[in-house]
Each structure stands twice: as C-alpha cells, then as structure tokens.
C-alpha cells in the first residue's frame, strides 16, 4: 500500500480542488460538462501553433463519452455527454475500476465503446447509445483519456490513469505538423489505431500550460481537434 501511495503522490500534488461550481457532476451549472473537440479549420489551428509544439495523436473512438467522479477511492457518480446520470451502468462495466488507490476527489473522462467492433468503416449512429448499455454490458469497454482539474501534461495524465488501472488509448507523438497527413493516411489504410472502432484521429496539445492558454468555451476546447 505504501508503494501505491508513493506512485500516486505526483498526481495528488497536481490535482486542483474540485468545487461544486466546476465539477462535471454539477448538473445545474448550465455548462456542458463534456466539451466537444475544437471547432473550425484544423489546419489553420495547426498553422497558429509555434514550431516544435508537441502534439499527441489518439484514436477518435466511436462510442459514448462519459465522465466519472471518484470519491474516497470509489465510483461516486457518472454522467454521459448529455449530463444524464449513468452511475449504476458504469459500475457494471468490467474494465472500469470499482476502486482506485487515491482518496482525493477525482474526475475522469473517457469513452465507452463496443469491443466487438474494431473497424473504422461504420458510423457513430450505428453505435448502441447509453440507453442500451445495460443490455450489452459484456461487449463494452472503457478507455480513459483525461483527468479533469489536474496540472500535469497530457502524456503524464495518461500514465497516471494507467497506474490507476484504467485502459488508456494508444498514442503517437509529433513535433512536426507536416507529419499529421502521414498519420492520417496510415489511419485511412487501417494501419493505425486498428484495435478500436474509430472515425478519425484526435490531435491534442501536450503542454498543460498551453492548454490553459488556448482555453475553451461553453461548447468546445481550443487545444484538441479531430481529423478524418
């Protein structure tokens, strides 16, 4: 247990206090808890970045976005992208940890997807929505990709999630925007992120400081975009 606590120290030190106002579980806040990816021309966004900006590429997994709040190491509440509570369904998904090794309040985002569909040839509309999760829980997996209210970079966040026994997505790094088209072509040819049902690639700024600088609005972030 002491070793587990030691491994969690870096995460604990960088977690912000989650107030009622900024919690994803605050249904009355009037703000969409699970923001969409950036809106607009992704190539203009890439051109606006400084040279050597580190970008992480992840699969855009077809599924249902959810947020989970842990309290005292246990699943406390969970919501879907429409701010509807789905706590009991989430507790039943086999690869979502029922308990984690830290007691701090922590909020995590990820996607529930159908593990039997690993092709990028079908559309999101064919995915079974959250209202049908209960009937096919055995086919669903959860992939975590974000820790809310945390002051560490994106790659470090993924590693902390892995330490907490969450499945995390496959990733690739690049410091050169010219590489993006190569990765995109590899995805289209089925050579990249083939373990998931996908409909694109997500580009994310790694630096937490730059993420905060770019910011967000009530609908979407300005530091993560999708291409397909």
At a glance:
The chain is an alpha+beta fold and 228 residues long. It has helices at residues 2-14, 42-48, 87-91, 154-163, 180-188, 208-214, and strands at residues 55-61, 64-71, 74-80, 106-114, 140-147, 172-174, 198-205, 224-227. The termini are far apart.
Give a description of the structure.
With 228 residues, the chain is an alpha+beta fold. The chain has one domain (2-227): DNA ligase/mRNA capping enzyme (D-amino Acid Aminotransferase, Chain A, domain 1, 2-Layer Sandwich), CATH 3.30.470. It is built from six helices and eight strands; from the N terminus they run H-H-E-E-E-H-E-E-H-E-H-E-H-E. The protein has a four-stranded antiparallel beta sheet. A four-stranded antiparallel beta sheet has the order 3-2-4-5. A hairpin with a 2-residue loop joins strand 2 (64-71) and strand 3. Residues 1-5 and 121-130 have low confidence and may be disordered.
- The H-level CATH homologous superfamily, spelled out, is DNA ligase/mRNA capping enzyme
Task: Report low-confidence residues grouped into runs of 5 or more.
Answer: 1-5, 121-130
Count of runs of 4 or more consecutive helical residues: 6
Q: H/E order of the elements?
A: HHEEEHEEHEHEHE
Question: SS-based structural class?
Answer: alpha+beta
CATH topology: D-amino Acid Aminotransferase, Chain A, domain 1
Query: How many DSSP-defined strands?
Result: 8
Q: What count of structural domains?
A: 1
Whole-number mean pLDDT: 86
What proportion strand? 15-25%
Q: What's the overall geometry?
A: globular
List the SSEs and their pairings.
Elements lengths: L1 H13 L27 H7 L6 E7 L2 E8 L2 E7 L6 H5 L14 E9 L25 E8 L6 H10 L8 E3 L5 H9 L9 E8 L2 H7 L9 E4 L1
Antiparallel strand pairs: 1-6, 1-7, 2-3, 2-4, 4-5, 7-8
């Amino acid at each position: 247990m002491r070793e587990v606590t030691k491994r969690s120290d870096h995460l604990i030190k960088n977690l912000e206090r989650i107030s009622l106002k900024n919690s994803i579980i605050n249904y009355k806040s009037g703000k969409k808890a699970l923001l969409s990816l950036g809106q607009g021309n992704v190539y203009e966004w890439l051109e606006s970045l400084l040279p050597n900006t580190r970008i992480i590429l992840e699969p855009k997994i077809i599924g249902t976005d959810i947020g989970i709040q842990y309290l005292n190491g246990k699943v406390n509440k969970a919501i879907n992208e429409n701010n509807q509570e789905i706590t009991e369904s989430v507790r039943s998904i086999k690869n979502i940890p029922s308990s984690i090794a830290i007691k701090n309040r922590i909020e995590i985002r990820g996607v529930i997807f159908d593990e039997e569909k690993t092709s990028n040839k079908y559309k999101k509309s064919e995915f079974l929505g959250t209202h049908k999760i209960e009937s096919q829980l055995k086919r669903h997996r959860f992939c975590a990709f974000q820790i809310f209210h945390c002051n560490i970079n994106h790659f470090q966040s993924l590693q902390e999630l892995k330490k907490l026994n969450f499945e995390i997505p496959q990733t690739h790094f690049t410091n050169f925007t010219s590489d993006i088209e190569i990765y995109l072509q590899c995805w289209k040819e089925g050579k990249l992120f083939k373990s998931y049902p996908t409909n694109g690639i997500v580009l994310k700024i790694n630096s937490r400081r730059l993420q905060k600088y770019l910011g967000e609005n009530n609908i979407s972030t300005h530091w993560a975009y999708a291409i397909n």
